[in-house]
Specification:
This protein is mainly alpha-helical. It has one helix spanning 3-9. The protein has one helix and no strands. It is flat and about 15 Å long.
């Protein structure tokens, strides 16, 4: 996924 989800969730999802 894009880093946009990471910002929305505020978690380290950017690594995924």
């Amino acid at each position: 996924m894009s880093g946009s989800q990471n910002i929305a969730h505020g978690l380290s999802v950017s690594a995924v």
